[in-house]
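hey can u check if this looks right to u? its 166 residues, i copy pasted from the old doc so theres a chance i mangled smth
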Amino acid sequence: MNLILVNIFFVLQFFSVVLMHPIHVSLTIIEYKYEKNAFDITFKIFTDDFEKIISRKYGIILKISQMDEQHENIKYINQYISDCFNLVINKNITAELIYKEKKMNEEAVWLYYEYKNSGQVKSVSISNSIMMDLFEDQVNLIIFSYLDKQKGYQLNNKKKNVTFEF
């Protein structure tokens, strides 16, 4: 009987670890779309963590999966992204992100933004501290594509900025 209880305990522990996704990571994809003269910027963030940080920072309880694009609380999502993410083109043009939409999958929210840019890009500086104010071990992966060049980088609490030169 004790062996059965021990096995049940270990199975429950295993599933609790798996369900809590002990990895704290976000993904940011920045891709230049020549036909639109714009950068498409996509963020993938674990939904439960994102709802938790919005609640802590703004005192708002979000159920992101129940929100449509016109929902009044979209402003808190946009505020958090603008507080934690910064894109500077050619060392002097700070990008104004335009919210496009959100999509959900089983565990993550995908947030889609756009930045209009008609000039040549010589450098891009990115500051990304998304979720770093909640998790000390947060890692933010960046994939940046411009014309035929693609670069990737990993940011964390010790290094929140990266610059790409072209």
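The helical segments are 2-19, 47-58, 74-84.
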